[in-house]
Amino acid sequence: MTETTSVQLLEKFHPTDVTTFNMNISSDSQLLLLKNEWLVAAEDHSVTGCKHLLLCNTNTGFCIPLLTDHTGYVRGIIKLNNNITSADSDDVQCISYDLATCSTDHTIQCWRLNIDTTTVPVSASLTWLRTVYDNYTFFSFVQLQLNGCDCIATGGEEYIDIWDRTITTRRKRLQDRRHNVFKIIELLQGPLLAGECGGNLASYSSTGVIKIWNWTLKTKKPCIATLKQNSQVHDIVQLQSVDYLAATYKDATLRIWELNTGTCTQVLTGYTHCASTIIQLRWGELVSVSPVDCTLKVWDVVSGKCLQTIYTSELVVNMIELHNGNIFVVAKCGTVKVFKYQSFNMLVW
Fold first, then answer.
1. Does residue 2 lie within any of the structural domains?
2. Cα separation of 252 and 14, whole Å?
3. How far apart are CA 330 and CA 320, in angstroms?
4. Would residue 307 count as lying in a domain?
5. Which pLDDT belongs to residue 11?
6. Strand partners, 202
């Protein structure tokens, strides 16, 4: 890889500088970061039967359950880009967001989330806007915004659907036969990924194969590349060097793929069991969590070296980077640990 990032041996997260909250978040929840300290979790409680969203304050641990009209489990959530403009003001006390949720009941439901910070405690409500019906179960969302594309993609049973930004008109359907599409990400443009409005997606399904799509192509086969490995995929993320993609696998490896050639350029090892989630921090490092190993690992993407390993007392499953650079980590038992990023004094928890 041609990145200039240097390996820093400084600890990125101090193991004892951790805030723990008992939020009772489902470990399989999809997390959506809102403005300031707010976060929404789409609760996939297939055991308890909960079909709601959970609004969380990442500073205080305060949570508000928000009931939905879904009859199936809520699998995904996305923030639509036609948000109320007041949500972009730091000093506003009543904030609104337009959201969409997908569920195993074969529907996408659109909502207006209202947060009133003038009450004690803070109050919030969901207002139903509309429902979109389909014959396929939805698993994931992604917002497509490259070059002003302004579309929404949904992944589900055998298909990836491209919708307009209000999720009222389906523009295109991509078929992944006999496989469930578990996650989709938008790919920024590189030499290989040049197309109308970008138009490039990466997805992985129950086959364990990563597929690269260009949905703007006027062809029956818009899949332009496949990244194959004899192991099941657990998560994917495009790196800041846009020609590369990182993925975690069931065989306990992390692999770096070059998108231009479709070849694996690095294999990162150090786990005894698979990593469930991987993200890249804004400062460049990769962070992965393994629920069985009970560890969080920080990696240098250039050298492939593990910079730090943090052992946790719970089975950590999911995570997201907060606006201040800290890591919000969800454990299997529903508790949350917030690890403070150490490299910059400006980041104060």
1. no
2. 24
3. 9
4. no
5. 61
6. 185, 212
